[in-house]
Amino acid sequence: MHDPAADRSQLFQRGGHLFMVVAAIFTGLAGALGAVAFRLMIRSVQAGAWGGIEGLQQMVQTGLLAEPEDPIEAAQHLAWGWRVAVPTLGGLLVGPLIYFFAREARGHGVPEVMKAVALRGGVIRGRIVAIKAVASSLSIGTGGSVGREGPIVQIGSAFGSFLGQVLNLNTMGIRTLVGCGAAAGISATFNAPIAGAIFAAEIIVGHFAVTQFTPIVISSVVATVASRFFLGNYPAFKVPDYQIVSPFELLPYLAAGVLAGLVAVAFIRTLSFSEMAFERLRMPEYLKAAVGGAAVGLIGLQLPQVLGVGYSTISLALAGTLSAVTMAALVATKIVATSVTIGSGGSGGVFAPSLFLGAMLGGVVGTLVSEYFPGATASSGAYALVTMGAVVAATTHAPISAIIIIFELTQAIDIIPALMSACVVSSLVSQLLSRDSIYTSKLRRQGVNLEETTDPNVLKSLYVRDVIDEAPEVISESANFQAILDLVVQSDHAQFFVTNKEGLLLGAISLSEVRRLIYEQEALRHLVVAGDLVDTRHPSATPDDDLAVVMKIFSGTRLEEVAVVDPADPGRLLGTVSEKAITEISQTEQLRRDLAGGFSSSMTAVGRGKTVDLGDGYWLREIMVPAYMIGKNLAELAVRERTGVQVVLARSRPMEGGGKIRVVGAVDQFEEGETLIVAGSLEGLNELERHR
Q1: Strands 618-624 and 611-615: what pairing?
Q2: Based on the domain organization, do 107 and 207 belong to the same domain?
Q3: CATH number for the domain harbouring residue 351
Q4: 112: exposed, middle or buried (C-beta count within 10 Å: 0-12, 13-18, 19+)?
Q5: Of 551, 584, 617, which marks where a domain is finished?
Q6: Cα–Cα distance, 304 to 444 (Å, whole number)
Q7: Which of 199, 255, 302, 375 is the most exposed place for a label (fewest CB within 10 A)?
Q8: Mean pLDDT, residues 2-10 taken together
């Protein structure tokens, strides 16, 4: 009988839907406060690094929470030595901070969150909140050519993960709160609640399942409302009014989309090259960020616009006040400056640099179009606005998020058709030329593959040769009815295959046909009837056919067995395949996939493993190795003594060829990214996953 009270209890219990909503609210508030504090930290470092005491005093006078200005004017008033020394000093501080306290704080943040979701069930160390905030504010404030969006995503995600661990949630619950933290960070930073939710679902979590998307949306909304309380309700960029002058104007916007895709691919590859080059550089790891800072400082001597986040320069491009030559130069130098900053070990995001590249590229395209077709198109600022979104879509391989983010950043609705067209085109170009996005390229180098590698239909990976019965019931075409009856009595088959003297298949006799004539057995006992009863239209298969094809035959007929013939000689009977055999092997293969982890459609799905009832209160479950077990063995962990759970198998993280399966010994250490097959009571299994 249905119990409404039980349903309500289910909602409020740990990990239930309403429980997660409440947790999402707290995560959203924390994300907003983190974004506000992070902005204040960046502004403080920037004011002190480039303006000294006077800079800090000016910051207090203009308002502590005002949008941080890029250090362009301040840098131009300093001697060239100081302009190089400030980013170098920033690298000297950031390098050791990251190396000795939290190495996952290095880089642009989002790949590290994606890796935590894929390999550790969303478990992120709590110290990341502080280390990432300090390291990124130092990098950005001292002129590092990076953005603040990636760090705030990692900071919010780290808080969500920490909260999930404190609440003792399972893997799914922690992953949901990680998504909530990411959404909160984006929403609070950009004043963009829709974009934050879409970004977290599309890129961090990887899907829009209601049970996870609902808390993410709530967290995003809460973070936006809270940040507006402190920072006000303003778009990130103030843009003039734009409109599409002519329908034919979409053509140059599409061309801009193609160019945006090419620039994005250049950015992705340059960043990857820089990261690999600094990895091979023979010097102490914690000093490399200083080398990167010095390089950026040297670039900034000629083009100070590359220093910092770059929002003020983006605003100039949107207003159409920069020359095409300057913007073209900034496209190339910004790619290099950002790649060097991140590759050397600096801490900051790639989202703002992508916006910067798009604005500069669009400004160049718009200037050229306006020069050759005056009066027939919008100003160069319109192209800068559209191409901002196009480059973001191409670098992230996430056009939906890019379109919504640009709309919420600017609140300019008239440009949406051109924006959508350019984003889709740029994303297609980027995906054709680059297998990975700017986020997943780093993960692939680390051996993490987030793409689907296994077809969910198990029958497509199985073949007739896997289940062929090479001893079918065969009847000669000269057999009489009595011989057929004797065979029916002795056999458990439902189809009997008739062959001629040469052994070639003529067709089959079904058990139903024999039953129809059973009452006439006395009259037919000595008559040769096999040739008369045979069904010559009986379908057949070959050993190389997959079982999905054969199951279609069974679904369209009443047959229980199908003949298997030689593909080189279709008349030669090799055996039979039965529907029962296919059902059994498909169940076995599905269970094998569940146990070995092959069922996962992507690494983001790991941790949602299936549970199989073994009976008598025992269950079999696939789980991801919890973070507390990584680097330890069964003897140290005392898993069986503590939880009553038996670790049956372990599988290394799946790559293109699939993961390797091993039996775990007492002294074998567990590795990051492994999936385990464990058996025990539900209480013990849950305790194993929740333990921190």
Answers
A1: antiparallel
A2: yes
A3: 1.10.3080.10
A4: buried
A5: 584
A6: 33
A7: 375
A8: 46
Helix (H) or strand (E) holding 317: helix 311-319
Do 549 and 674 belong to one domain?
A: no
Q: What is the C-alpha separation between 455 and 450, in angstroms, rounded?
A: 15
| Sign of the four-CA dihedral 476, 480, 483, 488 | positive
Pairing of strands 561-566, 540-541: parallel
The CATH code of the domain that includes 485 is 3.10.580.10
The range of the structural domain enclosing residue 563 comes to 459-584
Angle (CA) 560 564 565, round 5°: 150
* Max intra-chain CA distance, the chain: 117
Predicted confidence (pLDDT) per residue in 186-225, tens digit = 888 888 888 888 888 877 776 655 567 888 899 999 999 9
Q: Cβ contacts of residue 366 below 8 Å, gap of 6+?
A: 320, 377, 378, 379, 380, 381, 382, 383, 384
**156 and 218 assigned to the same domain:** yes
Q: How many domains does the chain have?
A: 4
pLDDT tens figures, 445-503: 776 666 544 445 667 667 787 788 887 777 777 676 667 676 666 666 667 777 777 77
Least confident of 15-19, 22-26, 313-317, 337-341: 15-19
Quote the CA–CA distance of 231 and 595 in Å, as a whole number.
50
Q: In what order do the strands lie in the sheet with 505-510?
A: 474-476, 495-499, 505-510
**Does any domain span residue 661?**
yes
Cα separation, 391 vs 262, whole angstroms: 9
* 368-404 burial: b if 16+ Cβ within 10 Å, else e: ebbeeeeeebbbbbbbbbbbbbbbbbbbbbbbbbbbb
590 inside domain: no
3-class DSSP string for 67-101? CCCCCHHHHHCCCHHHHHHHHHHHHHHHHHHHHHH
Residues 191, 227 contacting (CB under 8 angstroms) = yes
Same domain, 203 and 313: no
Shared-domain flag, residues 508 and 649:
no
On whether residue 494 sits in a domain, the answer given is yes
Question: 5 in a domain, yes or no?
Answer: no
CB–CB of 372/199 below 8 Å?
Answer: no
DSSP-based three-state secondary structure for 194: helix
DSSP 200: I
- The percent helix, strand, coil of the chain (3-state, each to 5) is 60, 10, 30
